[in-house]
């Protein structure tokens, strides 16, 4: 193996990627939680594209340096097998990052959104609105994020093992900048998962994460601070040479499954498409039954709070105005009193289509029952409430009231 170390430019590029990637990730976590209809949403989106472009350019530079540097020797005290594995993880992660902006661009264009690079200029759209392209690119744009997460977890676990076994950690085992990049990335992911519903559990989750890291680091110090790190090591065998890329690519497959595992979304429509005239995406005729005709109640302060904390997730997946586009879920205009699984031109899971055929009609109680735990009450449904099941009847009732106001008031649209 070569005894060359990383070139100075590679070190700079690796750290630049880490810093930009981290900033972009913070913005993304924030963007996903920002008010979808708030005035600042467009600003955040612009910065998301701008930072994404900078990450792209820096990673392209890093990869160019990668091939220019060629083989690089392991750092002191790192076995060739570990070094090789760390390099494959980084190389594949960089390639994954390189793909993300393309999917992101088409995802935005397919949703008829303008792509503007921060406050500077807008890119002309290469395609018009398209639901199939939107589904596919949306799935895999988020899939790439999951792939990076899985690679990051693998990297951090590898480093934990290397710390305990060899006393060598984040900076020695992985290429320059990549260790801090995945470590900070994992910390952000821990925070993001802990704060789907509200920011409160975030600091505690981070404290536990950093506590575990400190424990591993402390143990490693106890084990290794007296013993010198062994310097003679076996060269890289053929098995390790092949196993590293194959394992890393397998992890990508796991990541690609992430959006479905977590949000039940699919890259293309799967299930049964409800009949309807072309171009129609909502119930246009009010049902003629008590569920549709019940009166609306004025908004209470509690409902205002539920709207900001829980109902906002409904609106990430559902539009409510007449003929609004289907998103991940169907348009819900005039949904009260309608048979389940019948909004025109939406592709439903067999579970919901079947429930409709068997007579499920959406009224207050049925909607409350469904959102209480969609996966449990209609097993096989494609709906998942991003913030988690809603067991509290008071919250369910508040959501039903808000939904009625937003979907049944034809004068409002
Ligand atoms: C992550 C996306 C997502 C979120 C969040 C979400 N839904 Fe859904 N919703 C769906 C999908 C997808 C379907 C279609 C389900 C199927 O085909 O199995 C659906 C179906 C429905 C239906 C039945 C529509 C019909 O025509 O039968 C109702 C009612 C509904 N959602 C209400 C809600 C409410 C209220 C919330 C918020 C508490 C919510 N949804 C949150 C994705 C979502």
Description:
This protein is mainly alpha-helical and 413 residues long. It folds into 2 domains: 8-263, no CATH class; 272-412, Orthogonal Bundle (Cytochrome Bc1 Complex, Chain D, domain 2), CATH 1.10.760.10. The chain is 61% helix and 2% strand. The chain has 14 helices and 4 strands. The protein has helices at 8-33, 41-69, 80-110, 131-166, 170-173, 178-194, 202-224, 238-263, 290-293, 301-317, 350-357, 364-372, 374-377, 393-408, and strands at residues 115-117, 121-123, 272-273, 347-348. A hairpin with a 3-residue loop joins strand 1 and strand 2. Helix 1 (8-33) runs parallel beside helix 6 (178-194), helix 10 crosses helix 14 and helix 12 packs across helix 14 (393-408). It binds heme C (HEC). Heme C is lined by residues 263, 313-314, 316-318, 328-330, 332, 335, 340-341, 343, 348-349, 351-352, 362, 367, 371, 381-386, 399, 403.
| Largest sheet composition | 2 strands, antiparallel
| Low-confidence residue ranges | none
pLDDT average, as an integer? 92
Oligomer: single chain
Number of domains as seen in the coordinates: 2
Which distinct ligands sit in these coordinates? heme C
Order of helices and strands: HHHEEHHHHHEHHEHHHH
Output the structural class: mainly alpha
């Amino acid at each position: 193996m070569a005894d060359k170390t990383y070139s100075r430019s590679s070190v700079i590029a690796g750290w630049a990627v880490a810093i930009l990637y981290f900033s972009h990730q913070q913005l993304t976590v924030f963007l996903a939680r920002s008010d979808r209809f708030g005035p600042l949403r467009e600003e955040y989106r612009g910065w998301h594209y701008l930072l994404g472009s900078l990450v792209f350019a820096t990673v392209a530079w890093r990869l160019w340096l990668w091939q220019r540097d060629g083989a690089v020797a392991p750092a002191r005290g790192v076995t060739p097998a570990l070094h090789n594995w760390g390099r494959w993880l980084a190389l594949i992660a960089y390639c994954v990052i390189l793909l993300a902006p393309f999917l992101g661009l088409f995802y935005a264009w397919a949703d008829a959104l303008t792509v503007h690079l921060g406050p500077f200029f807008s890119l002309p759209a290469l395609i018009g609105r398209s639901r199939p392209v939107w589904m596919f690119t949306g799935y895999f744009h988020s899939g790439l994020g999951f792939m990076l997460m899985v690679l990051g977890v693998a990297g951090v676990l590898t480093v934990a093992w290397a710390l305990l076994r060899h006393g060598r950690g984040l900076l020695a085992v992985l290429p320059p900048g990549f260790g801090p990049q995945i470590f900070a990335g994992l910390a952000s992911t821990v925070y993001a998962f802990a704060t789907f519903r509200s920011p409160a559990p975030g600091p505690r989750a981070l404290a536990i994460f950093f506590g575990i890291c400190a424990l591993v680091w402390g143990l490693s110090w106890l084990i290794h601070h007296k013993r010198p790190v062994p310097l003679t090591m076996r060269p890289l065998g053929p098995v390790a040479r092949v196993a590293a890329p194959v394992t890393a690519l397998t992890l990508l497959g796991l990541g690609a499954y992430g959006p479905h595992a977590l949000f039940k979304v699919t890259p293309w429509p799967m299930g049964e498409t409800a009949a309807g005239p072309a171009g129609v995406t909502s119930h246009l005729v009010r049902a003629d039954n008590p569920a549709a005709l019940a009166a609306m109640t004025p908004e209470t302060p509690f409902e205002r709070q539920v709207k900001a904390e829980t109902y906002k997730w409904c609106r990430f997946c559902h539009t409510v105005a007449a003929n609004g586009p289907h998103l991940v879920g169907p348009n819900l205009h005039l949904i009260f009193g309608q048979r389940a699984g019948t909004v025109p031109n939406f592709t439903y899971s067999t579970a919901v289509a079947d429930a409709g055929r068997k007579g499920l009609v959406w009224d207050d109680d049925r909607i409350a029952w469904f959102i209480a735990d969609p996966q449990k009450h209609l097993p096989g449904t494609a709906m998942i409430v991003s913030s988690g099941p809603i067991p509290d009847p008071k919250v369910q009732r508040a959501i039903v009231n808000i939904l009625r106001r937003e979907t049944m008031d034809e004068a409002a649209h």
